[in-house]
Design goal:
binds magnesium ion, binds adenosine-5'-triphosphate, 9-stranded mixed beta sheet, 38% helix
Length: 384
């Protein structure tokens, strides 16, 4: 019987919490395969997906490849775990003219043959059936794997597809991703969700200074992210009034610092209201003036008691771009629509701001009123 054999990664490190992590992973797999017909079963160390429509296999594999916590999976043939059945299946492999290697893994130690002996005997049978083939243990063209499990079944397969790795979504709680239209923030969202953090997202727009298309682009980025993390609750908040107020009342070189401090305050308010436990940004150390150590100190200092996760902090732009390409957000991110941060952009933003000077500039503003007013513009869009 044709099946998909699923392996999970780090879960085995979880000791007593393992059940919680596994239960969540199984839920996530089922959520990802919603709408597909299939049977799910579990055996020690593996999950098995069977009874699916073979014409849907590519789609199912594509979806499984977006599940965090799955280490790898293989299209396999499931047979009864006895020597004859396994040999029969192994001999179905297309070995003509190829170099090959047989690898046997035995989770079930009651199986009568030792792994190495059984692999050698299977290899011998293949050589008999395909005289033009030969064994190459180091660099074979074909690797025939036999995985004998505890459920009385064995799985024969010749390829493995790498899964996402990481930890099951939702096992780390839920945070708020500050999602701009740039390259970095979608990558930041992907990276933390890969460690189990579910996400809502917050986008600031500066309509009418920023266009409808700029917002559209952010919706599209959220949609791509949602293919990994499921439906995203996206909070869209207008930043226009705030920017105008800062522009009129504060020193230009502190404009971005103050903007970012207000973004953080709004983010924290939304976290409180929606029970979210962390703020996530796409900042990368030294990338621009607002991402120096001093800038991040001054921006972070307005937050009362939430952690700010910055998973791109130590990544080069090139490395961030590579992830953006992998998760398919890059082409959307580089569309040239202006972001709210580019409106009224000062020529010389301060590189080493201080909290005192930022507070002095903020004394020219009614911060609480600006935050409250911005929160009133909030629109919520569910994206899937
Ligand atoms: P990105 O590529 O993610 O836009 P960036 O390198 O352009 O990042 P900044 O514009 O300084 O950097 O923004 C730093 C971070 O602040 C972003 O990664 C994002 O998390 C957040 N941010 C910036 N602009 C917005 C916005 N309009 N709405 C929501 N979050 C934003
Ligand atoms: Mg940006």
């Amino acid at each position: 019987m044709k099946v998909l054999l699923l392996r999970f990664g780090e879960l085995y490190l979880k000791g007593n919490n393992r059940n919680v992590f596994e239960g969540q992973l199984i839920n996530n797999i089922k959520e990802m395969l919603k709408g597909e017909e299939y049977k799910f079963s579990k055996t020690f160390g593996r999950y098995v997906i069977s009874n699916y429509d073979p014409s849907r296999e590519t789609e199912i594999i594509d979806r499984l490849s977006k599940v965090f916590g799955l280490h790898s999976f293989s299209p396999a043939e499931e047979v009864d775990a006895n020597v004859e059945e396994i040999a029969k299946q192994v001999l179905q492999s297309q070995v003509d003219n190829k170099t090959f290697k047989v690898i046997v893994k035995r989770a079930d130690k009651n199986f009568p043959l030792k792994s190495m002996d059984f692999a050698a005997s299977l290899g011998g049978k293949i050589l008999q059936k395909f005289p033009d083939s030969s064994v190459d243990l180091y660099n074979p063209q074909l690797e025939i794997n036999v995985d004998i499990r505890m459920n009385g079944k064995a799985y024969v397969y010749t390829s493995s597809i790498k899964g996402q790795g990481g930890l099951p979504l939702h096992t780390a709680g839920k945070g708020l991703l500050l999602l701009s239209g740039g390259i970095d923030s979608p990558v930041a969202g992907y990276l933390v969700s890969k460690r189990g953090l579910a996400l809502e997202a917050l986008h600031f727009h500066s309509y009418p200074y920023t266009s409808e298309r700029a917002k559209e682009k952010v919706l599209n980025l959220a949609k791509i992210l949602s293919s990994y993390i499921g439906e995203i609750k996206l909070h869209v908040v207008s930043f226009t009034k705030i920017q105008e107020a800062i522009h009129v009342n504060c020193k230009p070189e502190y404009m971005i610092t103050i903007m970012r401090r207000i973004m953080m305050r709004i983010a924290e308010k939304l976290c409180e209201k929606n029970s979210l436990g962390a703020i996530v940004t796409g900042e990368s150390l030294g990338q621009v003036a607002s991402q120096t150590m001093q800038s991040m100190t001054v921006t972070g200092s307005v937050i009362k008691c939430l952690p700010v996760f910055r998973p791109c902090i130590a990544m080069d732009k090139e490395e961030i771009m590579a992830v953006a390409n992998k998760i398919d957000t890059y082409e959307t991110s580089i569309l040239p629509y202006e972001d709210c941060c580019t409106v009224f952009l000062p020529k010389n933003p301060v590189i080493k701001p201080t909290i005192e000077k930022a507070q002095k500039e903020e004394n020219h503003l009614d911060i609480d009123a600006l935050v409250a007013e911005a929160l009133e513009t909030e629109e919520v869009v569910y994206i899937k």
